[in-house]
Amino acid sequence: MDEMEKIKSNFTWIAGPCSAESEEQVIQTARDLSLKIPLSYYRAGLWKPRTSPNSFEGMGVAALPWMKKAKEQTGVKIITEVATSQHVELCLEHNFDALWIGARTTTNPFSVQEIAEALRGVNIPIFIKNPINPDLSLWIGAFERFQKVGLTDLSAIHRGFSVANKLPYRNKPLWEIPIEFKTQFPDIPLLCDPSHICGNRTLLKDVSQRAIDLGMNGIMIESHPNPDSALSDAAQQITPGQVSEMAAALHYRTTSLTSNSAEKLQILRDRVDALDADIIDLLGKRMNVAREMGALKKEEGIIIFQLERWKEILESREAWGKSAQLTETFLSAYLEAIHKESIRAQNGVMNKD
Ligand code: PEP
Ligand code: MN
Predict the structure, then answer these.
(1) How many A from CA of 61 to the centre of ligand 1?
(2) What is the pLDDT of residues 126-173, one digit of tens each?
(3) What percent of the chain is helix, strand and coil (3-state, nearest 5)?
(4) Cα–ligand 2 centroid distance for 233 (angstroms)
(5) Contact (CB, 8 A) for 236 and 200
(6) Can you list the domains of the chain with their CATH numbers?
(7) Per residue in 264-279, pLDDT tens?
(8) Which residues line ligand 1 (CB under 6 A)?
């Protein structure tokens, strides 16, 4: 098997409807998906955490035998979301192959602990979604709770974060958080859930491709035989056929480079190294000037922070940033960091006798 085939065969696909709605829907979707994609687990939500109690909150225990039947009749492995110890017990009784922890549950350490206790001694695979707020340590804490009761088959699912200014997404991806997760835990498989990141169908493929480009190990995606009539998350679901089209259109990445691409990449890396060395050298020089300014201000008895000057700096640098094609967000973060450090440097000089 070549490198690329290996990557594809190790890639985890979890797909299925947002919610189990009827026996027929559960079994038909399982059959369609298992024939169309290399399905690792068939998903369906039984207990749905909804914002309003007036929304459809899932079929609950009634759907347990439907999932079991889907497994027996089509051979798929089954997974669902558990939020209480009672859910765990019911799923284990009904031969679920894996369980996932929803984003709202990961946010609450009491719930995670309760679920972990219920699983003590049962080494079933657990997929842990990121908490709804962008808090990496809370996500990691959930892993630690399961590790402490002896569970070893743990995976992470990145499903985006509920933050201000999240458009065009339903949950903003904030890619730096899953990247940091992967950096700290390179051995824990990390999947992406484009459905709950996007909240609509149009962005699904781009988000999935981005996840693959970042080296993620699988995708959990919502799929319904008739998405528009789904009882929950209708806008983001796609048919099994569309899942298979999307899967075929994605480009998988390898980490081992051909010698030609390795050479080209090395040239680019060398350029980045040289530029970073220059930038750091310039920053050092800039701080020296700030210290000289601090000394002068001390001599003359002038205050360090001068609002007019700061405004002038922001305006001129924003214009420079624009012509250098830097984003406003990056530039303002950079200016703020440099301004703080420069005040700190001036303060240092001021307070020295
Ligand atoms: C789901 O997968 O159906 C779900 C409710 O997801 P999340 O916990 O990511 O909101
Ligand atoms: Mn959903």
Answers:
(1) 18
(2) 999 999 999 999 999 999 999 999 999 999 999 999 999 899 999 999
(3) 55, 10, 35
(4) 5
(5) yes
(6) 3-249 (3.20.20.70), 260-350 (1.20.59.10)
(7) 787 788 778 878 877 9
(8) 18, 45, 49, 102-104, 129, 159, 193, 196
